[in-house]
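Escalated from tier 1: protoporphyrin IX containing FE holo job.
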Amino acid sequence: MDIGTVMNVMRDPAGIPAHPELFRILMIVTWVFHIAFVTLTLGAASLAIYAFWRRDTGPYWTRLSIAMTKVAKVGVSLLIVLGVAPLLFTQVIYDPQWYASNVLSAGWAIGFIFTLIIAYCLWFAFYFSNKEGAKRHIGIFAVIALLLFLLDGLIMHALSYQALLPGQWMDWYAPDGVVDTRGAYLHAIQWPRYFFIISLSVPAIGLYLLAYDDYLKSRPDLPEGYLGFVRPLGRKLGASGSLFALILFVWWQFDNPSDSNLIVQPGGWAVGAALLVLWFEVTFFADKLHGYLLLCGGLVVLLLLAIWREVVRATYLSAYGYSIVDQKINADWPSLALFFLTLAGVGGLVGGFYLSLLYRAGRVQGVYQADRSIAAMGTGAVAVLAVWIAVFFLYGIAIFIENTFAY
Amino acid sequence: MLGMYPTFYVPYIGSAWVMGIIGVIHVVASHTSVGAAFLFAVLETKAYRDDQPEIMGFIKRYGVFLLVFSYIIGSITGPGIWYAITVASPRGVSGLIHNFVWVWAAEWVYFTVEVIGVYALVYLIGKVDRLTHLKLTWSFALASWATMLLIVGILSFMMWPGNEGWYLTGSTNDAFYNINFFAHLGVRTGSMFVMAAVVGFMVAAGIKDEDLKRGVIRVIAPIGLLGGLFSVMMFLYYLQTLPTNAKVMLQAYLIPAYANTMIGIFVATTAYLVFVWWKPHRLKLYIAVPMFLAIAVLGVWPEERMRESMRKPYVAGQYIYSNQVIARDVPGKSIRGEVDLIAEKGLLKLHPFIPDRLREVTDDNRLEVGELLAKIACANCHALEPGAPLRSIPDKLYGSPDKDMIAAFLRGPLKHGAAPYMPRIDLPDQEVDAIAAYLASVNAGTLEKSAASHTSAPITALIEREGK
Ligand code: HEM
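Tier 2 regenerated the structure:
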């Protein structure tokens, strides 16, 4: 059977509830945030471990290690929730590929969950014991956790990559015509792509340190010299990390199949160019530009990467005659409105309230007294939720009653 | 051709139990976190109004515990269930995603807000003024509950929409606010307070200050009791909203299997809550931890297994069978049922993931084809090994090696869809024959050693050749 035809049949018969490009955009944008926290977390975790074992060599390593341990701790939570959204949107437009890839490596897809739980618990164990004067051996927890995080990233990568290779699915499922229902292998890994994405952790943590320095400038209780230690470190990691990632990126570019012509597409080189610009900024302007601005430069790289990944995917799949634009659409406006209103109202107001509060409180010593705007946001957050829940029930009861009588 | 996927098969427990295990962990973690959010809000209101800042110490302790227990485990097992259902039932999860993507996306907004919120709640205690923190806690509680409101609509649609509405309109409204939505929501909302109280007791057990301990317990225990009572009442209502296939399943299999455990857990939990309420100082960690484990495992496992079993033969909305076949037409979405087409052409012709050498049944490959077909058509609900815990087919056939009898079963009840908890599985003769031959040889013991392992296919072929 022709796998291109098969893929088109495997699409969900229910069709999709809005235009495919809308899902594509949401998938790309939400993935940027996922990968931002993936790279930040892996970078922070590595630095936490490195700093932990260098504690004896200088006064600030302990403090840095503890701070980075916390960053990684929060980072994992966020990378997980932020992974959920692209996971959702991928399944809407790339259901045949995503499900086939997952089923073919089902054991790993399940293993991903358990290893992630173990890794995160180990990281917490490290976090709880990484104090002034902590024993050296607790670093082992952190190392194992980091290795498991990297393994989970590899599983994510394989699931993404296998989805691009439908021509090989049947060979993986039934090598020599003998069916294997165990889902016991990762069937395809493109190392340059994996290493490149992971290598972005180095510039990510570098840029984070630069922003961290600017954020903490208002805190007089920090020991003198700490920030003076952090900033150059951030610059060094940011600059060398961008170059390092650039080299791996070029490797990935040349690793794609030559008949795909991906190498001559401008989108890929835009990612490379953005890395070069980043290197330039960090090398020459790290002390002149605000850390937040540099961080935005990093996000640009990730956005371009997200778009490029999508170009790569569409290119691989178009060879089989698969394209998301010819999906059957069964538009569903009420639930679309539900999402966008919730995103704006709850995401904006409640999420905004939490983030502003965390941001402000972190910059003062002692107790933060909410000013008028924050206080109003807090009241607004409770109110918007109360209204949301009330509407949810009234609307639901109306539909429930209507359907009870209608059918 | 049909849009079916490759099959993933876990010997003995089936992928259904893998999902059950992850599901139980997730339900305990997530219900605890939603319930606890409300306990925090109530306790913090008390602390604020009566000027009892020491209560905040308890909230902080519980909050840190919750972060590790509920948020690490809960937030990973959430996608975990998704992964598990993906590999066990790709078309089932796909059907849900394509009906509810925006609802899930809205839930995701809440979920993201919640994760930020739990860190803010725990780490800003004592770092921001008390009124602002109180707003933070109340908004956190409401947001947590909203995630439950959204997911329950999807879960209850999995059972069934309850009337013809959704099939005709295809509208998410009709799918979401289905007949057992409110009942199901009530059960979960009530039980989340029980879970939160029982977890709260573990945290409270460690409090040194006896007054604080008593004060906190006297708030938590009655909330847990009321929640439990409400949950039980809603459960009785929930039973009224079930489809016939679920009622049959309940009467025939589930009530005999689980009734005693469930009543036992209900009595034990009530007694525990009342006792701790009455004598807070007697609460110790060595009581609280085992009680938590017992209630979590013995209370939630039957509930999750029952929900999964009652849904049989469907995975979602009574239109997708557990074995990945579309069961009926859904005109509202222009979906076509596949059962009749399969009856006519057979799985071997229609399923895209069948190796070419197995598309025709021959004397050489009959057992191998039979095994593959059994995995495709039956193994989502049944294990294929004798003695296996997940509705082992060999055991259901009383170990009979009588191929004709097995074939008669396939050509009788299964073909006509006579068992309400099983799909109508109507297959062409040669496919029935292959499945029957395979199951008969499992029962005859000729396959036993290898039936589950990946090498079984060649060995099956081998045994067959040797047998001749
Ligand atoms: C430590 C944990 C994790 C790491 C290190 C990680 C890393 C990665 C990496 C490196 C990629 C890109 C793969 C590639 O393009 O080759 C990726 C993609 C992705 N990740 Fe994660 N991830 C983690 C956890 C998660 C979780 C928990 C979820 C879901 C809840 C998730 C959802 C996704 C999705 C949906 C994609 C895109 C897949 C696609 O477009 O095909 N990730 N992740």
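Chain B has two domains: 15-321, 357-467.
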